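$ ./design --mode recover --in tokens.txt
reading tokens...
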């Protein structure tokens, strides 16, 4: 399997190199040169497989030529054996044909564990084989940070620096990052918003001179391995609901477009998906594009669903690449326009093509709380605010009541007590046993100014287990 850049000017790489590369050298994102496609008979034969075995069948083509089957199987079995539910990603029925796919049974109670528990093991495997050491610099709007640290904390050849916007993530989210200690773990609270953090990460990838020769690796969803791992649970959900012999629709809470892009890929790989709904909060750049062909920066607002408090959706470039016939020059031109003006539109036929599959909705905080209360009254289920946005979007945008609708349950509600309290359901949530003492644990993090040079100087000084790079 070879991977190419969405901007067309970077060399094609194999899986191992893409895993370590993050951004392409031309500033683009890597995607498979040719997407594997499965027959309906092949997909049907996977019904009833344990999650790790299904993951092997879905992801095997993406690592072909880089990881032997036996090694990859072992990595996957270890990854998903760490989840607390035997089904790994169980489906919970809300009503007759509406389901929540619970993606929060991993160590940090968020969907990002599916990819980042795997990513840590893949990095360990590849770096040990190559005798290399790397530095991870990642930005988080809440959940990526703790999942990345949890996934990579035991990696012998990795130093990890996670940037989060100071005072803009929930207390549970922050503590899940800042109470994990290790010589290779560094939490940085940036005096800015998530987009500031993300821009620093992108700038650091573009010019890695401050590392003095050490390679920088991405854990954000720009890393192809993140997307690859998320494809699996679309197949998993569909197979539980009669797929591939019937179509399934999905509503996906998303800010950075990575999770829903995985669903788009699952469809292109042969899974019958009727509809993908982009469910977002007040920070609605994706909704404005899907509903009106306007991709434009706007003011970033703090909301009750902070993991989606994102102004610019990095992974959207991967969809643009396909919408433009995989023309890297066209995508590079669009991204240049966006950099200069803060907005762009695409030709009507390309936008119409996107609308054949995608619908969207932006949901504000008041509507989020209303939905949490409504679902609790209907079923006794407590939703986190991101999942509630997914439910609201599913109910308002659904094209067919005959087709099962799956809402991605992206996080455990205990991570967002403010939203649950504001919903007024009168339910007190308790942390799972492995996190029961979270609020008593010591925290360790460093507050830094919203300044790229200050961040890079910190990374340079504290990398390589405390030895200056």
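writing sequence...
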């Amino acid at each position: 399997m070879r991977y190419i850049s969405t901007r067309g000017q970077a060399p094609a790489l194999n899986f191992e190199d893409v895993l370590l590369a993050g951004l392409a050298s031309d500033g683009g994102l890597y995607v498979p040169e040719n997407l594997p496609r499965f027959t309906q008979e092949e997909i049907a034969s996977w019904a009833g497989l344990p999650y790790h075995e299904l993951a092997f069948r879905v992801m095997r083509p993406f690592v072909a030529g880089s990881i032997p089957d036996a090694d990859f199987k072992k990595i996957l079995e270890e990854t998903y054996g760490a989840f607390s539910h035997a089904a790994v990603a169980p489906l919970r029925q809300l009503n007759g044909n509406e389901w929540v796919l619970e993606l929060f049974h991993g160590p940090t109670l968020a969907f990002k564990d599916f990819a980042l528990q795997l990513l840590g093991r893949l990095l360990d495997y590849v770096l040990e084989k190559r005798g290399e050491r790397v530095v991870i610099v990642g930005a988080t709007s809440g959940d990526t940070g703790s999942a990345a640290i949890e996934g990579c904390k035991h990696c012998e050849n990795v130093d990890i620096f996670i940037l989060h916007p100071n005072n803009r993530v929930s207390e549970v989210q922050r503590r899940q990052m800042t109470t994990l200690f290790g010589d290779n773990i560094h939490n940085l609270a940036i005096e800015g918003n998530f987009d500031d953090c993300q821009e620093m990460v992108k700038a650091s990838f573009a010019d890695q001179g401050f590392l003095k020769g050490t390679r920088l690796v991405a854990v954000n969803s720009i890393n192809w391995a993140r997307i690859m791992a998320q494809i699996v649970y679309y197949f998993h959900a569909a197979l539980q609901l009669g797929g591939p012999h019937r179509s399934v629709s999905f509503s996906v809470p998303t800010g950075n477009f990575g999770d829903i892009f995985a669903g788009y890929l699952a469809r292109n790989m042969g899974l019958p998906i009727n509809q993908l709904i982009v469910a977002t909060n007040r920070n609605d750049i994706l909704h404005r594009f899907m509903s009106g062909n306007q991709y434009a920066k706007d003011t970033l607002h703090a909301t009750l669903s902070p993991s989606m408090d994102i102004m610019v959706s990095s992974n959207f470039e991967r969809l643009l690449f396909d919408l433009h016939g995989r023309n890297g020059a066209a995508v590079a031109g669009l991204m240049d326009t966006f950099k200069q003006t803060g907005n762009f539109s695409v030709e009507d036929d390309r936008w119409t093509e996107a609308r054949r599959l995608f619908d969207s909705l932006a949901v504000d905080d008041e509507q989020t709380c209303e939905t949490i209360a409504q679902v609790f009254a209907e079923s006794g289920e407590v939703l986190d605010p991101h999942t509630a946005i997914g439910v609201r979007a599913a109910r308002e945008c659904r094209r067919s009541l005959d087709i099962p609708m799956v809402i991605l349950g992206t996080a455990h509600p205990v991570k967002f007590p403010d939203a649950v309290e504001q919903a007024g359901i009168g339910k007190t949530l308790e942390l799972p046993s492995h996190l029961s003492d979270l609020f008593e644990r010591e925290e360790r993090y460093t507050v830094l100014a919203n300044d790229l040079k200050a961040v890079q100087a910190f990374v340079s000084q504290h990398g390589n287990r405390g030895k200056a790079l």
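exit 0
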